[in-house]
Design a protein that fits this description.
Layout (H helix, E strand, L loop, with lengths): L4 E12 L2 E13 L4 E5 L6 H8 L7 E6 L2 E2 L5 H11 E4 L11 H11 L5 H13 L15 H14 L4 E5 L7 H18 L2 E5 L11 E6 L2 E4 L2
The structure holds adenosine-5'-diphosphate (ADP) and magnesium ion.
Length: 226
Amino acid sequence: MNTPLQLVNIQKHFKDGDNEIEILKDLNLSVEKGEFVAVVGPSGSGKSTVLSIAGALQSADGGEVVINGRDINQYSDKDKSDVRLKSIGYIFQAANLVPFLNVYDQLKLVTELAGDWNDETKKRADDLLESVGLANKAKKTVQHLSGGEKQRVAIARAFMNDPDIILADEPTAALDANRSKEIVELIAKEVHDKNKAAIMVTHDESVLHYCDKIYEVHDKKLRLRK
Ligand code: ADP
Ligand code: MG
C-alpha cells in the first residue's frame, strides 16, 4: 500500500534553560489516502509540534518522517523544499496570507513558486475560488476580507498545488460555529473526493464528525480515541 504519510518512532524535546523537556516520545502515526485524521489534546501537549514535524517544517530529534515512501531525513534541502511546496498543503489558525496581494494572486504565487503557472493551473485557480465561494472576490486585497473568507482563501491556496497531504493546525480557532463547519467541510470534501491524506489539529469537538479517525495526545504519543 502506498501510504502518503508515516511518522515512525518520533522523538522531540525542547531545551528550557538547563532542562530538557521531552514533548514526543516514540510517537507513531500513519495516514492513508482518503483518510482525514483529527489530533486533539490539551494545550501544550505537542499537537502543533507533531504537525510541523509531519510537514517537514521542523525536524525531529529521532525517528522517521516518511512522505510518499521516502524518509525526508534522506532528502536534500532542495527536495525538502519541493516536498513542502508541492506535496503538502498547510492551513494555519491565522490564514497567513500575503497582506497586499489580492485573492487570486495568493493562489498564483504558490503555483509560480512551484514553477507550474500555466493554462491548466489558471483554470484550477478559478475552479478552486469557485468551490470556496470566492470567485466574485478574486481581485480583492485580502486585508478587506472577513476571517472566514481569509481562511477559505488559505484553503484554496493549500489545495492549489494539488498536494498529497493536507495539514491543518486549528484552522477554525478564529471562526464562529457556522464558519468553522464550512471550513472543515471544504477540507473533508477535498480529502474524500481526491483521495488525499489529511491531519487536522483541533480543539473543536463540533467538527470531529467530519474526521475518519480521532487521535488524542497521550503520554507523548498519539492514541486512537474509541
Ligand atoms: P500544542 O499545539 O498542543 O498546544 P505545542 O506543540 O505547540 O503544543 O507545544 C508543546 C510544548 O512544547 C509546549 O510546552 C511548548 O511550550 C513547547 N514548545 C513548542 N515549541 C517550542 C520551541 N520552539 N522551543 C521551546 N519549547 C517549545
Ligand atoms: Mg498548537
